[in-house]
Design goal:
348 residues, alpha/beta, D-Maltodextrin-Binding Protein, domain 2, 2 domains, 6-stranded mixed β-sheet, 5-stranded mixed β-sheet, 44% helix, globular
Length: 348
């Protein structure tokens, strides 16, 4: 049946109303996101200077970079200086030596430091992933499968998460650590060692793995440790500083919460932000992003990981201790309990 003239104005009015409603919805959405992009509890007064040591080439530093570049630190009254290092271990050393206030650092380096009686406090975890550690080998050196690592020279930074992952990976292949030759290098030296043929393979983490594999071209083979190690990336400082500056810790956590949310929710913008520092293309980062978990928390799994790594460290003589520390004594709960109480699952 054809429409009558009297029906047409009603349909035009209906369409106009729908269009107006859609426009208002879009405006409301933009307003809400704009409000969420700005921390709700901005702090007035002079900015407090903080030095944060981090591996800026590692994707786990995204919450720190975002908090600095998007003004989340400033909104919390913090003037953050990001100090660049090649590993979490080096970042933590900067804190231990008094050159930085806080460090971003994976669980293994924390376990080793605490085993060796360093008075460190962990204030939060900011990032987790299961696919950023692994091994890159040279096919022309007969590295073709995990089993073929037997008898090979493997470059690694001893006492780091790369070393731990390599050890566990070999164990999964029913290989003993003594069945390979581990050669100690700084993280930034591993690629050159592989290129020169000083070693048959290297063990480490991203972005070094992809960079070193690309340098080898079709000659590279990569084995990831996603079934043997979850990287738990944390913020830690000296215990005295942390306990004496509770408001500073709270402000730091609020800024990092905003940074982590940005990295988690705004994938395109976040990958564009960190791409230059991590030396990886935006397309590659976006493809890998689903395996990244950004957010601030203190999870019981952190304690379990630290204890497991302590057993490994004691077995490998990285400490003179024979007992496992009470890691709860090295976790500062008050800040997270105030800022994100629902994200604290550590039994205390």
């Amino acid at each position: 049946m054809s429409s009558t003239p009297s029906q047409r104005p009603i349909r035009r009015e209906t369409l106009l109303a729908i269009a107006v409603a859609c426009a208002l919805g879009l405006l409301l959405g933009a307003y809400v996101w704009g409000k969420r992009s700005t921390p709700a509890t901005a702090v007035s007064g002079p900015l407090e200077k903080l030095i944060i040591a981090t591996n800026t080439e590692y994707i786990g530093a995204c919450p720190v970079i975002a908090a600095r570049d998007r003004g989340y630190f400033a909104a919390q009254g913090i003037q953050a200086q990001v100090q660049s290092h090649s590993s979490g271990k080096a970042s933590l050393n900067a804190v231990l030596q008094g050159r930085a206030d806080f460090a971003t650092v994976a669980d293994l380096a924390l376990a080793l430091a605490i085993l060796n009686e360093q008075p460190i406090s962990i204030v939060t975890t900011i990032f987790r992933t299961e696919k950023d550690h692994g091994i890159v080998g040279r096919k022309d050196h007969a590295v073709l499968s995990p089993a073929s690592l037997k008898g090979k020279r493997i470059g690694v930074t001893l006492g780091t998460s790369g070393h731990f992952t390599l050890d566990v990976f070999l164990n999964r292949q029913r290989l003993r650590s003594s069945e390979v030759t581990m050669v100690n290098y700084r993280p930034e030296e591993l690629g050159a060692a592989l290129d020169k043929g000083e070693v048959d393979a290297i063990a480490g983490w991203e972005p070094f793995l992809k960079q070193n594999a690309a340098s080898q071209g079709g000659n590279a083979v990569t084995f990831y440790g996603d079934e043997v190690y979850e990287s738990i990336y944390n913020i830690a400082g000296m215990r005295a500083f942390v306990t004496e500056h509770p408001r500073t810790v709270t402000r730091l956590l609020r800024a990092l919460a905003e940074g982590a949310r940005f990295c988690s929710e705004q994938v395109a913008e976040a990958s564009r932000l960190v791409s230059p520092s991590v030396k990886t293309s935006e397309a590659e980062l976006r493809a890998a992003w689903p395996s990244y978990r950004f957010g601030i928390d203190l999870d019981q799994g952190l304690i379990l990981a630290l204890e497991d790594e302590s057993r490994w460290a004691i077995k490998n003589k990285f400490s003179n201790r024979s007992d496992i520390p009470n890691y709860l004594d090295h976790i500062y709960l008050d800040g997270m309990v105030e800022v994100k109480p629902g994200n604290v699952s550590i039994i205390h």
